[in-house]
Amino acid sequence: MSPVSEHRAAGRGVPGTRRARILAVTSGKGGVGKTFMSANLAAALVRRGERVLVLDADLGLANLDVVLNLFPKTTLHDVFTGKATLDSALMPAPGGFDVLLAGSGLVEYSRLTPEVRDQLLDVIEQVAPRYDRIVLDTGAGISDVVLYTVSLADDVLIVATPEPTSLTDAYATIKVLASQQERRLIRMVANQVSRPGEGRVIRGQLQQVIDRYVSPLLTREVDGSAEVVKLSLLGEVPIDPAVREAIQKRQLLMQMQPGCPSARAVQAVAEKLTSGT
After folding, report:
1. Is 167 inside a domain boundary?
2. How far is CA 74 from CA 77, 83, 84, in A?
3. N or C: at which end does the chain have fewer Cβ atoms within 10 angstroms?
4. CA atoms within 13 A on the CB side of 30
5. What pLDDT sits at residue 193?
6. Of 235, 239, 46, which is closest to residue 157 (Cα–Cα)?
7. Which residues form the domain of 249?
8. C-beta of residue 188 within 8 angstroms of C-beta of residue 203
9. Domain named CobQ/CobB/MinD/ParA nucleotide binding: which ranges (predicted)?
């Protein structure tokens, strides 16, 4: 059984058990706005009435604290090493959601050990009953730490930009998730688009490659037919000077300029998530 199957079996579908829906926000490469999306999407989900926790799952290169201008006294590293309790590491963030922040520059989290695997799963299991949604802000790429973190999620959201390297790495990530984790629906946000409709074009290009090279390899053992991997576009976030200003000021865009085009685009993504699109 895969990690995601084990996780779902542990709590999903059990009568009387209420658990957060877990969303992994990931990307094929760094620098595409993944943490920006995680934080502002959390704020948008709060506006729609959800109780949200953002867990900084980029355990060795964390930067969620920088984006939110937070100075944590306790991190996940302290929880993992037994120096602090989980409750002491939960921290309120601007935007009305909670965060669990990780440390930065910690070499021990550059690879997935059995200890890290068990500790991360235990933390998520403990906090899941307290929230409506947990957003996992993962690292970039397809390292074993990133893939394991994504495997714990119910839903996956890929953040990509129109740059060719971003699209190539996004495709590589989707291919691994489809083959190793049996993901058949992967959601996507196109960030930093320069014109309306560019996100749909990007999604279409990626879907064509997936249909040609990924789906045919995923055959059912029963009848031998190919399964289909669907890439669902949740939205496109335009290039917006308000984003750069918010990042430089270390403020949430959803709070600083909630009416700007990029903030409205993030709100639209939240609406699709809560409606089950």
Report:
1. yes
2. 8, 9, 7
3. N
4. 7
5. 98
6. 235
7. 20-272
8. yes
9. 23-251
Assigned domain for 4 exists: no
Listed residue (210, 140, 145) closest to 174, CA to CA? 210
Those residues whose C-beta lies under 8 Å from the C-beta of residue 74, and which sit 6 or more positions away, are 84, 88, 89, 91
Say how many CA atoms lie within 13 Å of 35 toward its Cβ: 24
72-127 pLDDT, tens digit per residue, is 899 998 998 899 999 999 999 999 999 999 876 565 666 778 988 999 999 999 99
On the 0-12 / 13-18 / 19+ scale of CB atoms within 10 A, 86 is: middle
In whole numbers, what is the pLDDT of the chain averaged over residues?
89
Provide the number of structural domains found in the chain. 1
Taking the C-alpha atoms of residue 199 and residue 204, their distance in angstroms, rounded to an integer, is 8
Give the model confidence (pLDDT) of 173-215 as tens digits. Answer: 999 999 999 999 999 999 999 999 999 999 999 999 999 999 8
d(CA 193, CA 230) in angstroms, rounded, equals: 21
Residue range 4-15, pLDDT digits in tens: 445 444 443 333
The domain that holds 145 is classified in CATH as 3.40.50.300
Residues for the chain: how many in total? 277
Domain annotation covers residue 11: no
